[in-house]
Amino acid sequence: MATKISFTPTHNFPPRLGNFAKYPQTIPLYPLQPLNVSHRNCNLKAGSGSAAAAKVQALKEDLIESLNSDASADSATASFPSSSKLVLVVGGSGGVGQLVVASLLTRGIKSRLFLRDPEKATALFGVQDNEKLEVLKADTRNSADLDPSMFEGVTHVICTTGTTAFPSRRWDGDNTPERVDWEGVRNLVSALPPSVKRLVLVSSVGVTKFNELPWSIMNLFGVLKYKKMGEDFVRKSGLPFTIIRPGRLTDGPYTSYDLNTLLKATAGERRAVIIGQGDKLVGEASRLVVAEACIQALDIDFTEGNAYEISSVVGEGPGSDPQKWRDLFEAAQNQ
Questions:
Q1: Above 60 in pLDDT, residue 130?
Q2: Backbone angles phi, psi at 2, to 5 degrees
Q3: By mean pLDDT, which of 73-87, 103-117, 300-314 is the weakest?
Q4: NAD(P)-binding domain spans which residues (predicted)?
Q5: By the 8 A CB rule, do 61 and 259 touch?
């Protein structure tokens, strides 16, 4: 039985697997600080790009100034301790990954991104110096892209890569579940140095039951099978890991150039979190909740070597409180 502690999967589930209520997105979750992205191995300069990108940058600055001006009045403006981490985020331009990066920037945690198209980072996060954010051009589907020097100094890794379960435009360019969820994960894990303190992999509920209904419908093109193969490779790698298995993803994805949407992203009324083990949970999971779970798991020692299912329901929740998240994960293990 899953444990619920009041808060508000990496792909699209078939629409008939359940009828889920939708809630307005009105409650700020993260007080994002100014987002500035520097690039290593990428010749991108502040102010370059299309006219649309320039407008986005101007909008970003106005929004950040507005957010910062009343940050002290917002209960979400928690101060975070300084960190010596260097977190590699793979899939940082996707729905969950984008929120992971935004939250790491808010916390003052240095990040490094692997992106197929580094220009996306400039459009999404602005211009940062190397002390905040590094962006490297890399495609995990191609092992030759993953040079050992790219992992220099990395202490933690969050992998949020994924594609759609069924054929779609996102499959263009050989972006299939086999290539992304299996080969990409295998290539990444094989290239990681043994010094990595924790790898967090975002997978999906249902991966252990892909031959059973209704999961077999979800797995018609192999997405759950390939995610499970990725999980198994992580388990056998010898690296310290945590696997997060969300339900059907909601809230977002915030993958457009609309920074107003990203900076004011919320989990609506679905802020309560349910965490379980044993692949028994079903339901929805807010991308905001999944992103926060990934970051929290980095620092919770007993989550190492475990997989957790996660969903979101109506109610208050842990926000970014480390102790509340620790209690959630611990309760799941004690069931």
A1: yes
A2: -75, 150
A3: 73-87
A4: 91-266
A5: no
Measured CA to CA, the distance from residue 331 to residue 50 in angstroms comes to 49
From residue 152, how far is each of 12, 51, 58, 140 by CA, in Å? 34, 35, 34, 17
**Cα atoms in the Cβ-side hemisphere of radius 13 Å centred on 167:** 0
Q: How far is CA 170 from CA 93, 217, 230, 262, in A?
A: 13, 19, 20, 21
Contact 27, 271 (CB under 8 A): yes
Mean pLDDT of the chain, nearest integer: 78
Can you tell me which residue has the tokens 């509340």?
A: 324
pLDDT for residue 55 is more than 60: no
Indicate the angle between helix axes 95-107 and 287-297, nearest 10 degrees: 50
CA nearest 246: which of 116, 94, 125? 94
Winning range, highest mean pLDDT, from 57-61, 67-71, 273-277: 273-277
The residue among 216 and 34 whose pLDDT is bigger is: 216
Spell out where the chain has E strands. Answer: 3-5, 38-39, 86-90, 110-115, 133-137, 156-159, 198-202, 241-246, 248-250, 272-276, 284-286, 306-313
Of 105, 211, 193, the C-alpha closest to 148 is 193
Residue type for position 99: L
Of 99, 135, 141, the residue nearest 117 (C-alpha): 135
Q: How many CB atoms lie within 10 A of CB 148?
A: 9
* Cα 274 to Cα 320: distance, rounded to the nearest angstrom: 15
Residue 315, CA distances (Å) to 8, 270, 290, 318, 322 in order: 6, 6, 16, 10, 18
Rounded distance between C-alpha atoms, residue 214 and residue 209, angstroms: 9
Token pair listed for 236 = 């056998």
